[in-house]
Amino acid sequence: MEELLDKFKGVILGSALGDALGKALEDVPEEEAKAFYGGEVRSFAEPHPSSPAVGLEPEWTTDETTISILLAESIVQRKSIDPYHYFSLLARWAQKEELHRYPDPALLTAINLLSSGIELEPAGLYSSSVEGVLRCVITGLFHHYNPYLASEAGRLVSLITHRSKEVYDASALVSVAIAHLTSDSFQLELLQERQAFLESLAGFIKYEKNRTYFERISELLQEGLELEEAIKIIGNSTFVFEALPLSLFIFLRYIEDPLEAFFKAVNACGPAGGDTDAIGYLVGAFVGAYRGYWVFPQELLEKLENYEYYNSLAERLYNTTMEFLERRS
Predict the structure, then answer these.
(1) Mean pLDDT value of segment 109-133
(2) What is the pLDDT of residues 139-153, one digit of tens each?
(3) For burial by CB atoms within 10 Å, which of 122, 128, 207, 294 has the most?
């Protein structure tokens, strides 16, 4: 079971590390990023002046990590997924503006509306931002043993604040991907296994338009395209069916060197920039789920903000998950 614990740590630490590194480049056009940093970012760096993360310390994460950490804390405290308790933690965090690190505006609006007793749909609040599904790496860990439960749990925690057909499907995809990777359901070094992995994920897509977005991943893998071309075709914006398919493409395209896949993700800028911290977050989680936290450079992990806490939280989430499974048996 030690290998499974390493994967829990890999998901929580890998996602946070991807967020911290990727934030430096967020919304920065590729040529500007390369000129400013002299090449790829492969360690902690001051955020580019055009990044919304400007002013944050290099080793800091953003609120994309915070929202997932709150979910992990909620599960540990309640010994299960309790959406009401999770929302109470979100609401408490939302009130502490001094803790905010350029959070998703749709998230804050949703929390404020719900806290006031106003339903999101009648208020006309819909969001298809990738920020709504990043938290699903946690549900994928908690229900790693059952992809169906992972999919439903992912939808449950995401649709609290982000209501759209895109988030409905993407939340399940993220959660199930983590469950499969944590459980070693596929040997992804083989191309046919990568295709089988994608086919399994596609089974959790309800809406046909989202399926069309998702099918691009397999097509580009078969063509053997490099990242630069994939960004042009898939996109790399905050729209969930750009950021998530691109993240899966990067992970699977470069799976033979998972650490290289990770660094490509945090540098996934396009001609108009890109949501590099979310993409880095997702690929960091995928790599960590598949290979464990040892795949990441220890010197980076130890410099990461809250490293010791994240490591401890991963252990507690693992123990909570094992206790939950014992109660079910």
Answers:
(1) 91
(2) 999 999 999 999 999
(3) 128
Three-state SS sequence of the chain: CHHHHHHHHHHHHHHHHHHHHHHHHCCCCHHHHHHHHCCCCCCCCCCCCCCCCCCCCCCCCCHHHHHHHHHHHHHHHHCCCCHHHHHHHHHHHHHCHHHCCCCCHHHHHHHHHHHCCCCCCCCCCCCCEHHHCCCHHHHHHHCCCCHHHHHHHHHHHHCCCCCCHHHHHHHHHHHHHHHHHHCCCCCCCCHHHHHHHHHHHHCCCCCHHHHHHHHHHHHHHHHCCCHHHHHHHHCCCCEHHHHHHHHHHHHHHCCCCHHHHHHHHHCCCECCECCHHHHHHHHHHHHHHHHCHHHCCHHHHHHCCCHHHHHHHHHHHHHHHHHHHHHHC
Which residue's structure tokens are 């905050």?
238
Sign of CA dihedral 24, 283, 279, 142: negative
Contact call for residues 136 and 157 (beta carbons, < 8 A) = yes
How far is it, in rounded angstroms, from Cα 76 to Cα 79?
A: 5
User: Phi/psi zone of residue 48: left (φ > 0), alpha (ψ -120 to 50 degrees), beta?
Assistant: beta
Contact 104, 158 (CB under 8 A): no
How buried is 193 (Cβ within 10 angstroms: 0-12 exposed, 13-18 middle, 19+ buried)? middle
pLDDT, mean of residues 53-68: 97
Answer whether residue 124 shows pLDDT above 90: no
Cβ atoms of residues 240 and 129 within 8 Å: yes
> pLDDT band at residue 218, thresholds of 50, 70 and 90?
very high
Tokens of 49: 């002046």
Rounded Cα distance between 318 and 72, Å, is 10
Q: Is the pLDDT of residue 123 over 80?
A: no
Share of the chain above pLDDT 70, in %: 100
